[in-house]
Specification:
Blueprint lengths: L16 E5 L5 E6 H11 L2 E6 L5 E6 L1 H17 L3 E7 L4 H16 L3 E7 L8 H15 L3 E10 L2 E8 L13
């Protein structure tokens, strides 16, 4: 559980007057702190300071446990959205292994992740870079319905890499194509 900012709750709130927002999100107005606490207690929920830097301080009448849960869920979703996965191949990768890795790549792309596809060249295999390019093109062809090439294939030492990003979703269509 990672909450970026600790929230003051109920008696921890130090302000004398607060801008009060009720449980439905409606602005009640500037209220003395003891009256705001009484309203929250009467409803069986907490008074949470949501904007301590505002003048007057903004407080909301909510169930603090639910409020923290919602914030954590939102933070998790934001962290996940910037995910980069990597799938590694060699030019000797067999057909079955290729298809297995391709299905994993498709799953990552459908989940909204970017995928870096890397071809490793071992020993003297580096002279067969054309086979690596062919393999990357097969991946592009097999994923063109759900992904676009964000970074064209680039050779870096003994590797060749390319970056795929998922296409924007169109109305939640889910095509189950496999090559």
């Amino acid at each position: 559980m990672v909450i970026t900012r600790p929230y003051r709750v109920n008696e921890e709130i130090r302000a004398r007057e607060v801008m009060l927002i009720d449980a439905e999100g409606r602005k009640v107005g500037v209220t003395p702190i003891d009256q705001a606490l009484a309203i929250a207690q009467e409803q069986g929920v907490d008074l949470v300071e949501v904007a301590p830097e505002a003048n007057p301080v903004v407080c909301k009448v909510v169930d603090y446990g639910k409020y923290r849960y919602q914030l954590e869920k939102r933070e998790k979703k934001q962290r996940k959205s910037a995910s980069l996965k990597e799938m590694k191949f060699t030019i000797q990768t067999g057909e079955h292994d290729f298809n297995t890795k391709l299905s994993r790549i498709r799953k990552f792309l459908k989940d909204g992740d970017k995928v870096r596809v890397t071809i490793f060249f071992k020993g003297r295999q580096i002279i067969h870079s054309d086979k690596g390019e062919e393999m990357l093109q097969r991946v592009v062809q097999s994923t063109q319905d759900i992904a676009k090439v964000d970074q064209e294939p680039v050779s870096k030492g003994r590797t060749m890499q390319m970056l795929l990003t998922p296409l924007p979703r169109k109305g939640g269509k889910d095509e189950g194509k496999n090559s």
